[in-house]
Design goal:
membrane, disordered N terminus, 14 helices, transmembrane, Aur1/Ipt1, mainly alpha, Inositolphosphotransferase Aur1/Ipt1 domain-containing protein, disordered C terminus, about 280 residues, transmembrane helix
């Protein structure tokens, strides 16, 4: 067993231990802490496996959609090269946006932890986390059907270097041609359409729409969505596609949680019905 495998066992084992009802009942004040730790492990594993998934789905070899996406942007009057050039010209703000772009998993965990701590009765934390997981999986599925290099192919080398989240074109080409048989050590997201960063920002705004936490997270979410264009190498079309992505993820999370609550209540209902039918 490697050191990484050993760390995996420790993380999963501790998360399973903290999820036990007996542990939570004994330390009720720490329930939000336990739940946040479990969510951290879940998000970490989601991140580890989402990247290989984004590589694996490209083996389907669906037609590249860059021409369609570029035409869509131009029809809306949006020039991603001009926008990137303008953004990069404001060096301090551009550097700050680059740092914000890297906060993807951390802001998700922060929203979950705050929702769980301050809005437990409304299930804000669990609803957000489930919708986030659904969005990641849906993004990988859609990108398999509509693959693209992304707007980075339009940029000169200097501007392209700033698009830290852009699709590594060499990896995409190798996958589509069948030359890549193993995951490389240095990987980058192969997902252009739709933008997961914009999707996450929309999920944050929706989850906290009735919360006093919204003013705290809304600026971060809005700036986070902007970084999809400045550092993600996305077309505007990718960003707009995040709207149906977020809506579908929210619907799925509501459906799954409603079924889970229904399943949890069903034994009580059946038990009550049995008792009611027993003779006195």
């Amino acid at each position: 067993m490697s050191a990484l495998d050993g760390a995996d066992v420790v993380l999963l084992g501790s998360a399973l231990l903290l999820s036990r009802g007996a542990v939570r009942a004994r330390y009720p004040l720490f329930r939000p802490v336990f739940a946040t730790y479990e969510a951290s492990v879940l998000v970490a594993y989601l991140g580890l496996h989402a990247m290989p998934l984004s590589y694996a789905v490209q083996k389907f070899g669906s037609p590249l959609q860059d021409g369609t996406l570029i035409a869509f942007d131009r029809a809306l009057g949006f020039d991603c090269v001009a926008f990137m050039t303008w953004a990069a010209g404001h060096a301090p703000a551009y550097a700050l946006l680059g740092k914000m772009y890297q906060h993807f998993p951390y802001i998700a965990l922060a929203v979950f932890a705050c929702g769980l701590t301050f809005h437990r009765a409304q299930d804000v934390g669990p609803r957000f986390l489930v919708s986030f997981i659904m969005a990641v999986l849906l993004t990988a599925l859609v990108s398999a059907l509509f693959p693209a290099y992304g707007a980075v192919i339009l940029l000169d080398p200097t501007l392209a270097a700033g698009a830290v989240g852009a699709t590594p074109a060499a990896h995409l080409d190798a996958l589509r041609s069948g030359l890549m048989r193993e995951m490389p050590v240095q990987v980058g997201s192969l997902i252009s359409f739709p933008s997961m960063h914009v999707g996450l920002g929309l999920l944050i705004l929706h989850s906290l729409r009735r919360s006093w936490l919204l003013p705290l997270f809304a600026p971060h979410a809005l700036v986070f969505m902007l970084t999809a264009l400045t550092h993600g190498g996305h077309y505007l079309a990718d960003c707009l596609a995040a709207l149906p992505l977020a809506a579908t993820s929210i619907w799925l999370s509501r459906t799954l949680l409603a079924r889970r609550r229904g399943a949890a209540k069903s034994p009580e209902v059946s038990g009550a019905a049995t008792l009611a039918g027993m003779p006195a």
